[in-house]
Amino acid sequence: MFVVGNLVGAIAGVINTLLGLYTFIIIGAVIVSWVNPDPWNPIVRFLRAATDPFLNVFRRVLPGFLVGGSGIDFSPLVALIVVEFVRRFVVGSLNSVALRMG
Fold this sequence. Notes:
mainly alpha
């Protein structure tokens, strides 16, 4: 049974790492959005392809706030909160299961 516990613990570690990397990808996309990036740059295209589908879910729900004539997009902040919640909940639950099996 300890082998299954080790497997669950390893899966929790991989999920934790992937969600941590995705957090940095979202932060990178936010930083790039503050400047006027070249839309054909491969890094910009990757960041947008990796984050826009997830952020668009929150953009549909959240209203854009106008400050000084330009909108402030709070979707990355909400997305980071959701990613961190999932990270703590899923990884924590899997780690608990792994400890009980080990």
